[in-house]
Amino acid sequence: MDKDTNMNTNLRLSCIAAVLLTLGAAPAWAQASAPHGGMDMPSAAGAQDMSPASAAMPGMSGMGGMSHGEAAGSAMPMAPMQGGSAPPGARDPNAYSGGYTLGSGPYTLAGVQPPRLADEHSFGTLLIDRLERVYTRDGNATAYDAQAWFGRDQNKLVLKAEGDAARGRLQGARTELLWGHAAATFWDTQLGLRYDSGAGPDRKWLAFGVQGIAPYWFDIEATGYLGDQGRSALRLAASYDVLLTQKLIAQPRIDANVYGKSDPARDIGSGLSNLTAGLRLRYEFTRQFAPYVGVEWAGKFGQTADLARAAGERPRQTRLVAGVRLWF
């Protein structure tokens, strides 16, 4: 009985061992039958369609002793990575328009110029910075200060005009015709002529100076003048816009004139002739239309003050102004 039991036990162990060996050998057989870790081999029909070069691949198994240098020498030559000629069938990128060119063709509008760069356009503007009524103890007057220009970013023609009239007569006027040239960012150099008219004899000057925007957005003008008979002059002007709101703007402004030689016929003395400082408050209904009110102080100095006293005028006075600023 014990002998039969031992035989049955051994038989069972042998069967279990055989099953385990079979299960362990199955993955190894599957890996050996699928080269390169699971890549599918072509079917028989696909193998018949392979090119001779592809069919010859199995024969390379006998070339195990070939070095990498020999393999590289026998490999297909590689095309250069950069440069070279375009393929024969490549399309010309300049032929996409179908024969149409800029400024010609059936879609071109008659009389319309082709697009131009920004610095090829001409622009023009007219700014009447001050057109105002001036109220003083000695009487009232009308004053104006305007500037116009036309041209391009680099070069433009500039016209400046400033003056005042009282009792129906032009008291004094300064007109300048200048060539403006962009010399730096926000700055133009100016060269041209100045013509003075009004009370007294007319005067002609050669004008040269700069105009632009200084740091912190100060508008600056500095112009020198040379006239006949050794006359010389210097004019300085500065202003700044303080935005109280987007439409309500306060503008302090200062002007000064210096002359190198006295000109009694025009009530001008040498040295610092006059200085004006004022504050104007304007409301911009639009940028093109802005009425304002303000106050300014005007003073004459040195020989110019003496000439004013001799004519019965006040060398210092405070003025109230009301006017409009226009921009076209």
- Provide the CATH topology of one domain: Porin
Please tell me what the overall shape is: elongated
Tally of DSSP helical segments: 6
The CATH class label of one domain is Mainly Beta
CATH homologous superfamily annotation of one domain: monomeric porin ompg
Number of β-strand runs: 13
Largest sheet: 12 strands, antiparallel, barrel
By secondary-structure content and strand pairing, the structural class works out as alpha+beta
Order of helices and strands: HHHHHEEEEEEEEEEEEHE
Helix content range: 10-25%
Percent of residues in beta strands?
over 45%
Distance between the termini: 128 Å
Mean pLDDT: 81
Tell me the Rg in angstroms: 47 Å
Largest sheet strand order: 1-2-3-4-5-6-7-8-10-11-12-13
Poorly predicted runs are 26-75
CATH architecture of one domain: Beta Barrel
Task: Give an overview of the whole structure.
- The chain has six helices and 13 strands.
- With 328 residues, it is of the alpha+beta class.
- The chain has a domain of 207 residues: Beta Barrel (Porin).
- Strand 9 and strand 10 form a beta hairpin.
